[in-house]
Amino acid sequence: MFYKVLPIVEKEVINNKYFIITFTNFEMAEQSCPGQFFKLKGLEQEFPILPRPFSVFKKEDSKLSFLIKVVGTATKNLSQLKIEERVALLGPLGNGFQIHNGKKVLIVSGGIGYAPLNFLRDGLNKADNEITFFHGGKNANDVFSKNIRIYTEDGSIGEKGLVTDGVEEFLSQNQIDVVYTCGPENMLRKVKEICEGFKTKLYMSMETVMACGIGSCCGCAIKVEENGKPVYKKVCKDGPVFDGYKIV
């Protein structure tokens, strides 16, 4: 884990909801694994006080990129920063995905849940996995790539409906070894339900509010099952990636 103040070296505005910012730092990039996250805050921004967590979207040599959705003051502030303006970064934080080798893999993302799974796809490709990628959103603004199977609730791009509709159909017709998923809670609940029916190994990256990001404040605790008993785990430190079947 590192704390560094870095200038934005690249910025891409996707639409009025999403943007990508990129930083360069060899140490941070070298230690970042798919599923981990960083805490980010513009150096000159006084409010909100706490930095916000963002999954690593892409790693390329010494470059780290973050796909960010504008949802409140902190993300709006970040969206207004320009190239060469400085941002404080803390990370990499949390535990990432377990990457298997030579498996048939299904990736399922919803909305901004696409970010960590895009990085994961690169790692899975290097490990010689056969990958199918499903992504869902409310409309075309929530889609970031056309080289995957897309579902939108309004049918503005891809197939009309929920991404979980496609998951159920796909698993009924294909033998899949591992499912990786990240997205809204309702989507994750449905993916878990579907995977249970097919007894498919499942990894979930959880999205939740994080204050400290290092396991001190316990504000991001979720209930999981261990040895048949419910216990609480911290998403920022014990996750954000969990065995999907253990999440209550």
List keywords for this structure.
6 helices, Elongation Factor Tu (Ef-tu), domain 3, alpha/beta, 248 residues, 37% strand
User: Which whole number gives the mean pLDDT?
Assistant: 96
- Give the radius of gyration: 18 Å
Principal-axis shape equals globular
What is the overall number of helices? Answer: 6
Write the layout of secondary structure elements.
Elements: E1 2-7, E2 10-13, E3 18-24, H1 26-31, E4 37-42, E5 52-55, E6 58-60, E7 63-69, H2 73-79, E8 86-93, E9 104-110, H3 114-126, E10 130-137, E11 149-152, E12 159-160, H4 163-173, E13 178-182, H5 185-198, E14 201-205, E15 221-226, E16 229-234, H6 235-238, E17 241-243
Parallel strand pairs: 9-10, 9-13, 10-11, 11-12, 13-14
Antiparallel strand pairs: 1-8, 2-3, 3-7, 4-5, 4-8, 6-7, 14-17, 15-16
Helix pairs in contact: 4-5
